[in-house]
Amino acid sequence: AQSVAQPEDQVNVAEGNPLTVKCTYSVSGNPYLFWYVQYPNRGLQFLLKYITGDNLVKGSYGFEAEFNKSQTSFHLKKPSALVSDSALYFCAVRVPLADRGSTLGRLYFGRGTQLTVWP
Amino acid sequence: GAVVSQHPSWVICKSGTSVKIECRSLDFQATTMFWYRQFPKQSLMLMATSNEGSKATYEQGVEKDKFLINHASLTLSTLTVTSAHPEDSSFYICSASRTGAISGNTIYFGEGSWLTVV
């Protein structure tokens, strides 16, 4: 079974400090991993994804994430947080194409982490 | 970039009536779209997978007669909440992936639709 865990419901950081939002996953086969951000009353915006290649993935708005296969993690990071980064962040894993019965595009989401950056 | 549009963004309806939410892929064709439901401050719950030209696949516990899904074209899927009740009030989000995409395609989400049943 595919699953994603975001162990922290809430992350609070001061503006200008580095931030990390944690994500671990469990998936059969090679994972395709995604991070999305959701602002209040809005849909999800794509931040970045890992499919293959370099373990460090750079995405939108200065965010990056590092794929760690041995730890089955895909933590989201940013060197210097902004107040405008305050939002709900979701980690997601996509079912590999090799899985029988998988549906292209089906995502499994973590429960979300509320990031608050204070001035 | 790819854009997925949902309409309406907000809808209020009376209990017992039906309401339709549209999901459109604006600059790509999507044979598959997904409908999610999200409760406040919670994660997304997949309701069903919408397949162009065929019946939708519903997740366990989701009433197919309650949540009617139609995917009549490669750019449009609709979710109709029939005989709505206050407990159906929620944030509904759709997503779509490109047709024929190689592995690693990005899934794009609509802006979501707030449904309030009074």
What this model shows, in words?
With 119 residues, chain A is mainly beta. Chain A is 0% helix and 50% strand. In chain A, strands 2, 5, 6, 10, 11 and 12 form a six-stranded mixed sheet that branches. A four-stranded antiparallel sheet of chain A has the order 3-9-8-7, with no helix packed on it. Chain A has a two-stranded antiparallel sheet with strand order 1-4. Chain A starts with a strand and ends with a strand. Chain B is mainly beta and 118 residues long. Chain B contains no helices and eleven strands. Chain B has strands at 4-7, 10-13, 19-25, 32-38, 44-51, 57-58, 67-73, 76-81, 90-96, 108-109, 113-117. In chain B, the strands form two sheets. In chain B, strands 2, 4, 5, 6, 9, 10 and 11 form a seven-stranded mixed sheet that branches. A four-stranded antiparallel sheet of chain B has the order 1-3-8-7, with no helix packed on it. Chain B is globular and about 35 Å long. The model of chain B has no long low-confidence stretch (mean pLDDT 88). Chain A binds chain B through residues 32, 34, 36, 41-46, 49, 51-52, 88, 90, 94, 96-97, 103-107, 109-112, 114, and chain B through 4, 6, 32, 34, 41-44, 46, 49, 57, 91, 93, 95-97, 101, 103-112, 114.
